[in-house]
Write a structure and sequence with these properties.
Length: 261
């Protein structure tokens, strides 16, 4: 069937899952939107909810809602699709944006959870590996850094929402970000303290999960990187850059190289 004869459903599905240049540009556009929305919330986190800011919130919400509706529409099994982590995150983000006029700017900070989508889509990862040599060489480190940043922003939003104004020295989003980073790095200057069991449990969660993510990032930076090449025999996905045989099954490998410049 020709491109002009495809249904709207097929055309939308090809945008999200296809391998054409148009589909690739579309997915890069979504990635740029996600990154821009994160910068936006960071820049406006401490500002009052003015009509202009609310209008910008609604514009962000409309794009997320359209993306959510399209993904749900093209999903093969919609109930299974709705149970995926990133879909649940989109629902939370939309709810926080729509509730911002009633509940305040703190709830809108939860839109930072949208960052969970950054470079985690299978099709987007495929595009990045194909188009960007830097990403191919440093994929593990990039993904670890993204996971750590998303965790910091998400926990900052939770700290601000649950304990902002209820703990001494913890009044603004910046205060919550400062507390999250100092707790994660176990610096603990002591100028902001959690005095309730809720706040202390948050601090424990930040330390346990955050330190693990930080150590994972450090490991991906300092441990020699592996190359992605699926073994045709056993399916092992990552190998040493100079590997000739699979360490798991011993079969000969033919790993593609970048070649001479």
């Amino acid at each position: 069937m020709s491109g002009s004869g495809k249904s709207l459903h097929d055309r939308v599905r090809l945008l999200y899952e296809g391998r054409s240049k148009r589909a690739t540009r579309f997915r890069y556009g979504l990635l740029m939107f996600d990154a821009a929305s994160i910068v936006f919330i960071l820049a406006t986190a401490t500002l009052p909810l003015t009509p202009a800011l609310l209008l910008a919130d609604m514009a962000v919400a409309s794009v997320i809602a359209a993306d959510f509706a399209c993904r749900l529409w093209i999903a093969e099994t919609r109930l299974r699709h709705l149970r995926q982590l990133y879909v649940l995150v989109d629902i939370v983000v939309l709810a926080s944006l729509l509730a911002a006029p009633m509940l305040g700017q703190g709830w809108a900070a939860l839109r930072l959870l949208r960052a969970l989508r950054l470079v985690h889509s299978y099709h987007l990862l495929r595009d990045l590996r194909r188009d960007w040599r830097f990403f191919r060489l440093h994929e593990d480190a990039i993904l670890s850094a993204v996971n750590l940043l998303v965790f910091i922003f998400a926990m900052t939003a939770l700290v601000h929402l649950l304990r902002g104004g209820r703990e001494p020295g913890l009044n603004t989003y910046v205060d919550a970000l400062y507390f999250t980073v100092t707790t994660l790095t176990t610096t603990g200057y002591g100028d902001i303290l959690m005095t309730t069991w809720t706040g202390r449990l948050l601090a424990v969660a930040i330390m346990i999960v955050g330190v693990g993510l930080f150590l994972r990032l450090a490991r991906t930076i300092f441990v020699p990187a592996k190359v992605r090449h699926k073994c045709p025999e056993c399916g092992l996905l990552k190998h040493d850059p100079d590997a000739i045989h699979c360490k798991h099954c011993g079969i000969e490998l033919k790993i593609e190289t970048e070649g001479a410049a």
